[in-house]
Each structure stands twice: as C-alpha cells, then as structure tokens.
Amino acid sequence: MIDETVYKSRREAVLKQMKNKSAAILFAAPQKIRSNDTEYPYRQDSDFYYLTGFKEDNSALVLIKEEKAVKEILFVQKKDKTIELWTGKRLGKDDAKERFHVDKIHTIDKLDEKLKRLLLNKKRVYLDILSEDKRVLHVKELLKEILKNKAAKHTPQEFLHVRELSQSMRLLKSPAEIELIKKALSITKEAHHKAMSMKKAGIREYELQAMFEYEFKKNGAYSDAYTTIVAGGNSGNTLHYIENSELLKRGELILIDAGCEYEMYASDITRTIPVGGKFNKAQKEVYEIVLETQLRVIDAIRPGVKKSELQTIARESLCEGMIKLKILHGDVKELVKENKDKVYFPHGIGHWMGIDVHDQCPYKDKKGEELPFAEGMVLTIEPGLYLREDDENVPKKYRGIAVRIEDNILVTKEGCENLSFDIAKRVEEIESLYDS
Predict the structure, then answer these.
(1) Is 226 helix (H, G, I), strand (E, B) or coil?
(2) CATH code for the part of the protein at 4-167
(3) Ordered alpha helix ranges (H), 60-174
(4) Which part of the chain is CATH 3.90.230.10?
(5) Would you name the residues annotated as active-site residues?
(6) Entry pTM
(7) CATH code of the region 171-433
(8) pLDDT cut 70: percent of the chain above it
(9) What proportions of the chain, in percent to the nearest 5, are helix, strand and coil?
(10) Residues of each domain in the chain carrying CATH 3.40.350.10
(11) Where are the alpha helices (DSSP H) in 156-269?
C-alpha cells in the first residue's frame, strides 16, 4: 500500500508546476452505465487516484496556487444512510478529515458555491480540456459567470490541460509502486502457469478467460487490467481479439494476453502456448524467432536508450528470422526501409505501464523530442509475428500461426529488470508445465 504522505508529496509536486494565480480541478471518474439503469463495475480515474489515493466516485480535488500560498481542497460525498443502504458505505467529510492531508474538506454539494469564490481573481485554470464529462462542462459554465464579474481584479484568460501536470510525474515509478506491479505480476503468473498446465483441447476460449478472471480475484486482485485475449489458432492474428468464443483444437497455438490489476496497478503479460502441451516443428521455429527478438530488445534497455531504437532492433531481428523461414526475401535493412516486415509485425514494441495498462505518459518532451529511458520507468516489451492462414506469401506450414511474447520491464540505474522474469516463456519451460 502507498502511504497518504506520498499522495501529499505528489500534490505538492503538481502545485510546483502550476503558475501563480491559478487553480487546478480534477474529478473522480463518473459511474458508467452499462445498459438502462445498470452500471459497469466502478474504477477510479487514474490521475485523480494518483493524487489522492481515493477510490470513491462523485468527488473532486481543487488545487490553488497564489504567489505566496498554496491550498489543497478535497470534495467528498455526504454521509447518507438511505443511499448507503443501496450502494455501500461512504467515507464522509469527518472521516475524510482524519485520513487526507489536505487543507480543507467540503461535501461535493458545496462545489459550485466554493468554486465561484476559489476561481475568482485567478488568471489560469487547469482543467481536463479534452473531457466531455458533464461536470467539466459545468465548470466551464461557471467560468463564464466569473468572466462577467466586473468586480474581479483578474478573470481566467488561460486554460491548460490538468492531466499534463501529473502524467509526466507518473513516468517514474516509486519503490512502492514497483512493489504493487510486482504483486500484480505474481498473481498473473499463477494464472498463466495454470493455463499452461491445463488440458485445453475441446474447451472454449472463454473457459480459459474465466479461469484467468477467477485466479485474479481468488488471489486478491481487484480485476483484470484489460479484457483478456484468448485467441486460438488463426484468431491470434487479430491483434485485439476479444470474442473468446471458439473451440480450442489440438495442434494449434493459443495466444493469451492477460494481466490483473492489483490496488490500481496493472500487469500486462502475453504468452503463446500449444493447446496439446507440445509445439510442433513449424510453431517452434516461429516461436524461437520471436523469443530471440524479445531477449535482444530487453538486453538493449538502459537509461539513455530510446523506444524507437528498440523498435529498430525488433524489426531487424524479426526480419532476419523471416528470411530464414522464407517468409521474406532480400536484405534486412532494405526490407525494414520498405516496411515489408510490418505486414507481419504491425504494432509497436511496447508501451508505458503503471496505474493504466497503457499509461497515459508522454513519449516526447516539450520540444517534441523523443524521451530517453530513465531509471524508474516501466514498459512492456512485446514483439510478435502474425502469419494469417490466407496469406499465400507465407510457406504453407507457417500459415495460421500467431506468436506474441510480452513482459514488463523496469529501467534501472545501469540497465533493466524483467519484473515478469519468472513467468515461463522458453519452449521447454512451457512444455514442462503441461499436465499430460
């Protein structure tokens, strides 16, 4: 768990970035309707949680910066026994005062009244300018009223994107955050290893998906970090396949992309395993190319290296392998230059990961230059080869094979650490786990 003082220090870091005579407003995630009057399971807004550690909906954080003073104000729901009977216990104002290290706590019904005063004489407002949330739109209407106030010395003339203040901070994970990711990965490992050991021929893809979700919850994970992909055979060539409805057949591979979320922190792991527990020769040949590529890329990660450099390593390595398999023909560098490899490896080598499985952190600095890796960054590394069964340019024995291998990597002071190193991925490791 992360201590309340950590959230306090994060808010202080945001306030340091803010300009004088400014206010920042960030809302908790709204409830989302699934259909009619039923809702999806609630999940807090990532940036709001990063700055507060608070998981309740219908709340807001307001940060105020003057030339000589700063203020942190949290708005929470009122205690209400009738509503709590239906939807569960609320923290309430009094308990919030005990828990949160902020200057003021108000109930959320006071937000409009307080904002009219707090935003008065502010030159700048930080808001989620990309949001269509009705609460954000309502704040914009309040600002129109303030702009008409002739008694104000200053009125907001500059609107800045509030999420840019925290998302750059989220790039570098603290030791406590890394421990939460490791915990998520330890749970994810158990589920992947169980999938490797199971008899899979003749069951539906969704039965494996259900097993993953059960293992996550059984071991204390809040939920899956994203919709689990269980893609048997040629379905693995659809990158975001989530139908998970087909029968698993002996002799095919299964591409499983599944990771849990533990205390709001994600894991993101892909393994490709044989239905019957053994890779055939063609499957093994493709698999080893992807594995060798992944190992080369991970070996290159260290502070100062850029993600685009890893992409080049991956593309060239996969091209070398595809030439050996007679899928591609020619010179590696020319094939990459002509994007011939992208038919079979169309996606990036990885992405940032943390509170979001695809962490919304910048890949470029304010000058538009690509950010080099630095100690504390966490990213996925996930090369793949996708050989569709209808592609006549691919030798017949390889058609319908899809392989992706994905691990979660921490950039360290002198190199990197594979946080998911103990999730089996070598051919002999995977085959040894199968319960024959």
Answers:
(1) coil
(2) 3.40.350.10
(3) 81-87, 92-99, 111-118, 134-147, 163-167
(4) 171-433
(5) 37, 240, 257, 268, 347, 351, 358, 382, 386, 404, 406
(6) 0.95
(7) 3.90.230.10
(8) 98
(9) 40, 20, 40
(10) 4-167
(11) 163-167, 175-197, 205-218
